[in-house]
Amino acid sequence: MTTTFLRSLILLSLFALTTCQEASPTAPGQETPVQFGDAQVDSIYHNYLDLQQALANSDPEQAAAAAAQLNAGFSASQAELRYLARHIAASNDLEVQRRYFFPMTDQLEPVFSSRMTQGTIYRMHCPAANNGVGADWYSAVTQVQNPYLGTAAPACGKVVSHLRGRG
């Protein structure tokens, strides 16, 4: 490893430690299970969570497998989401996978919110992700499991908003 790379990794870790120390508003384990009025969206949601968890675990092979499952759940009208999922599935490079995961969260918000009947999905934010620009992801729980920094800074982030079921 080069000295520049190591220096960058150390600086990123220090930045993550100083910017990501906020408590969750709900204690883990108190979340309400999420339900959808559409089996396809339910499948997309669970495959998205599998992908998010694989990235949080810094496991590129599992992320690729989860993205392939996610891609299979998207309809033809969800071309941009299929494009993102295909690129994640085609790569075993965590940085590439995380780069395509980033825009997926924004594009999934209307999919989830329009069909959600029960529960809460938490929108998390890490200010250190995406080269310090910050990035969001969805979670079923309030405990932070950062898909962008993975095992380097797993707890970097906080709940910034949520989606709630209409039921």
Mean pLDDT: 85
Beta-sheet strand percentage? 5-15%
Give the radius of gyration.
16 Å
Helix content: 40-55%
Oligomer: single chain
Query: Which structural class fits the helix and strand makeup?
Result: alpha+beta
Distance between the termini: 53 Å
Order of helices and strands: HEHHHHEEEE
Tally of individual domains: 1
Give, in spatial order, the strands making up the sheet with the most strands: 4-3-5
Describe this entry's structure for a reader.
The structure is a single chain. With 167 residues, the protein is of the alpha+beta class. The protein contains five helices and five strands. The protein has helices at 3-19, 39-56, 60-73, 79-89, 94-115, and strands at 35-36, 116-118, 120-126, 135-139, 158-164. The strands form two sheets. Strands 4-3-5 form a three-stranded antiparallel beta sheet. A two-stranded antiparallel ribbon has the order 1-2. The N and C termini lie far apart (53 Å).
